[in-house]
Amino acid sequence: MTDHSLPRRLERPSALAFLGYVVAIVIVIWAFQGAGFSLDKVLTSPPRFADFMSRAFPPNLESEVMARLGRKMVETLQIAFAGAVLGVILSLPVALLAARGLIAGPWINGIVRNILGFIRAVPDIAWALVFVVAVGLGPFAGTLAIMIDTIGFCGRFFADDMEAVDKGPSEALTATGARRLDITACATLPAAAPAFVSTALYALEKAVRSSTILGLVGAGGIGIELKVGFDLFDYPTAMTVILMIAVVVIAIEALSTWARKTIIGEQR
Amino acid sequence: MTDPVNEILAPSRVSDRAGAQRVPVSGDVQAGSAAAPVVLQDAMPRHDVSVQGLTKNFGQTPIFADVSFRLLRGEAVALVGANGTGKSTLLRCLLGLIPASSGTVEVLGRRITDARSADLRVLRCRTGLVSQKHNLVPRLSVLSNVLHGLLGSHSGPRYWSQSFAPLPARRAAIDALEQVGLANLASRRADRLSGGQSQRVAIARALVAKPQLLIADEPCASLDPAAGEEVMALFFKLVRENGVTVVFTSHHVDHALDYGDRVIGLAGGKLALDATAASLTASDLRGLYD
Ligand SMILES: Nc1ncnc2c1ncn2[C@@H]1O[C@H](COP(=O)(O)OP(=O)(O)O)[C@@H](O)[C@H]1O
Ligand SMILES: [Mg+2]
To answer: What is the residue with the minimal CA distance to atom 18 of ligand 1?
Structure first.
């Protein structure tokens, strides 16, 4: 009979692991220091926060304010949709170049993926600032910012989706002498289509969230109202804007979840 | 068998080029002078597959070494061997889907072991592959899937979907479906088929371009025994009717003997058997399967 002695409840960490823990703790402390963390402020903030809330409530629901904010919200959604649709469409050819082993060689894959990484690394609000300089204040700058942000996101994930599809159908077509472009169109794209839909819907959710704050830098949409509300100490209106954004973002997420289910759910 | 559809369809079929080289001229010994080095010198009898000293390693791992065999036109050869001996790997090497480590493979008169990818594609217009998995594209219609078998000789967006395909191509696809008895399911989505039906559609896709060489890697392994027998019988009826040369694997000893003219066996990284099916019994093969 073999002797099954129980393992120890806690393994002693190796010296390297121990060092790792220490370094991690030091980094966390250092970060809190740099972040201006102050217990004092935390303790004194509840009264001030309560003060803000009491001044912001009830939110401003005057019909003319609501109408103005409503129009701005519609503009926000227009920016988000237009930017996301443009971005998704442009992402397709970009993703074809970024996907490894599809139609482009490893050099092009690498270059395109690095460019996409750069696009994602720059925050959407920074892209908005750049486009405000390039095309002037207004919703068009915001649309371009959303578009480029979407390309960074979808270009990469569409490419990953295509790399992940079952290679069997492509191999079967390769064996009959089909060209790469034909194989991509006939085997890879149809197989990746459900994943594309899912990714594109996430991109749309992301676009709606981004578009609500682009107004802060003058790139169109409802964000400007938020800024004006705070600048003029018109907290009730600012609160209306915040609530409106929350409702719309939640609604879009629900809609996108539903669409994802209806479009790709029936497949299996 | 005359094939008017395919004639209309394929005025510039690559097979014509290879066909021209195929005519043997008696007494004409022009050993490699005018002909390009990729051309196999024609000798009677004609071999559709000629493998010489083929060796394959994945990185440091040797899979098989120094494998040599030849296939006559119209011959069906069963490749047998235990799981993991490299049967699928060998079949992939035959079509140049993966590169060989050393040795040469000549298929339909062309050396593929150092061919450029454009040449490989031209050659593959006359080959096809049926695998254990049917490898249909699930979201597309059965007819579109079969139509894709023509992509080797017919490139471009019109051949991507049956909705846009020219009439002769659609006819060819439906004829191929007719041959496997599934013309009635042409517009069904491929993922709505049973396993046996899917495999029959895969066979139709492999046959639609009238290939000269077919590779079948365990075509019935994913099916239940009854459906598997049906698929094997149908497959071999069609390839025999069309004079197609076949290399196939199966994990059933009986299949190798029933459907193969010859049996070759891999064991211990070597070609351990090459004999006519008639000269073998099931018990001769059992040893190779474990
Ligand atoms: N792409 C690959 N890379 C590395 N090893 C592989 C690869 N494909 C197959 N192998 C290995 O090669 C061996 C033979 O595989 P395979 O040809 O599928 O065998 P069989 O078809 O006879 O069962 C197996 O050990 C497998 O793990
Ligand atoms: Mg195998």
So the answer is: B88
